[in-house]
């Protein structure tokens, strides 16, 4: 064994007092940075990142993390105001009175949760972008009501209960759309991993927001103007960061809105837009009423009433004709637009095709356009193995 002395430059000293060359110092720093980066990835990023998630994951999560920070602060300010309205710090207030008020608003919120979930759950998957942002608007609106509620003692309960209603809707819409987005991000089927790391990110940032928010609450105590000013500032930041985050999303599963945008571009330019181009055209808050009216005219996967099913022989003949041509859908005219009957064993592609046939008939396009459009979809990165077209569950078979 031979010992070899390595020349060094003074100025770089390790923990034991030994000098290191500038090159070794750089390697040491790179190693330290690498270790910190690996630790961060282990704690907060899905396993296999970035290959295990979609390309829009990083941009969305960055802004989603910032909005969680702002939301933690506004939430504390709203809670501070709510507790003051319930009598915390007031010598004449009783604990029983505060409990009754809290239970009342909590009960109204729970009833709202159940009602909203039963009425709107089917829309949340299909329009995850729009409902994700709407949830944040409603959440901020609910907290605003809680902030201003103590200003008028007579209106405190109505305002705080209305705030609870809005926040309960937020809980359903926000949680449901988060699940839908997690499914989008998890390209390797790693839903649990993506969801767990998203929760870790939000928990860490919310903790930081809670610390900052606690200091702000102490600073604004007794000053309503200052409290509302801080609330307004972080609410605007909250809405802006959410907007930016949602604008990062490139969802590639077809809902009626995205399918219409694709259809219009294909019919006019004979070109299929990609997910990024469609994302740039999608409205987050105010969806074009004309587009909404067009897709509302199509009933997909309808249930035929007994009289309709038994007496309309022409429809049965049409069904047999469609089956012979290999189609799994039957388009029928209705008083409001088009009804699409889906046949037994139809796939997601068949449902998408059925919607396109109905759209073509409603707007005077021919079958060749539908065939070309569906073929282009199948050859693209748009998903045709699943859809969000809000189709009914009924399927029909055609007897020979």
TrEMBL record:
Keyword Membrane: yes
A UniProt-annotated Pfam family: UVB_sens_prot
Compositional bias ranges of the Basic and acidic residues kind: 7-28
Cellular location(s): Membrane
This protein's UniProt keywords: Membrane, Transmembrane, Transmembrane helix
Annotated stretches, region: Disordered: 1-30
GO cellular component, one term: membrane
UniProt keyword Cytoplasm, yes or no: no
Source domain of life: Eukaryota
UniProt cross-references to InterPro entries, sorted A to Z: RUS_fam, UVB_sens_RUS_dom
Domain Protein root UVB sensitive/RUS as annotated: residue spans: 36-269
Sequence similarity: Belongs to the RUS1 family.
Protein name, as recorded: Protein root UVB sensitive/RUS domain-containing protein
Organism: Palpitomonas bilix
């Amino acid at each position: 064994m031979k010992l070899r002395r390595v020349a060094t430059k003074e100025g770089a000293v390790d923990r034991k007092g030994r000098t290191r060359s500038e090159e070794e110092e750089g390697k040491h720093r790179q190693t330290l940075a690498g270790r910190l980066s690996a630790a961060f990835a282990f704690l907060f990023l899905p396993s296999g990142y970035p290959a295990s998630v979609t390309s829009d994951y990083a941009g969305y999560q960055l802004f989603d993390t910032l909005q969680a920070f702002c939301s933690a602060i506004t939430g504390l300010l709203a809670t501070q105001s709510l507790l003051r309205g319930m009598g915390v710090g007031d010598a004449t207030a009783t604990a029983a009175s505060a409990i009754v008020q809290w239970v009342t608003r909590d009960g109204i919120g729970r009833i709202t949760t159940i009602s909203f979930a039963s009425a709107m759950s089917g829309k949340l998957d299909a329009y995850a972008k729009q409902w994700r942002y709407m949830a944040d608007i409603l959440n901020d609106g609910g907290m605003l009501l809680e902030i201003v509620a103590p200003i008028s003692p007579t209106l405190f309960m109505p305002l705080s209960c209305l705030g609870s209603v809005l926040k309960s809707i937020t809980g359903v819409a926000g949680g449901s759309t988060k699940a839908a987005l997690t499914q989008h991000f998890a390209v390797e089927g790693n839903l649990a991993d993506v969801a767990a790391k998203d929760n870790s990110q939000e928990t860490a940032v919310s903790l930081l927001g809670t610390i900052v928010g606690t200091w702000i609450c102490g600073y604004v105590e007794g000053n309503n103007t200052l409290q509302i000013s801080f609330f307004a500032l972080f609410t605007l930041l909250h809405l802006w960061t959410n907007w930016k985050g949602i604008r990062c999303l490139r969802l590639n599963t077809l809902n009626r809105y995205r399918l219409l945008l694709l259809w219009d571009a294909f019919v006019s330019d004979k070109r299929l837009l990609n997910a990024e181009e469609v994302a740039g055209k999608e409205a987050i808050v105010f969806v074009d009423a004309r587009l909404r009216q067009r897709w509302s005219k199509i009933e997909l996967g309808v249930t035929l009433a007994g009289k309709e099913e038994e007496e309309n022989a022409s429809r049965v003949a049409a069904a047999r004709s469609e089956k012979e041509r290999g189609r799994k859908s039957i388009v029928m005219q209705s008083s409001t637009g088009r009804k699409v009957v889906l046949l037994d064993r139809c796939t997601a592609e068949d449902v998408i095709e059925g919607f396109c046939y109905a759209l073509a008939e409603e707007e005077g396009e021919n079958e060749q356009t539908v065939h070309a459009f569906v073929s282009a979809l199948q050859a693209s990165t748009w998903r045709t193995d699943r859809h969000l077209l809000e189709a009914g569950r009924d399927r029909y078979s055609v007897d020979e």
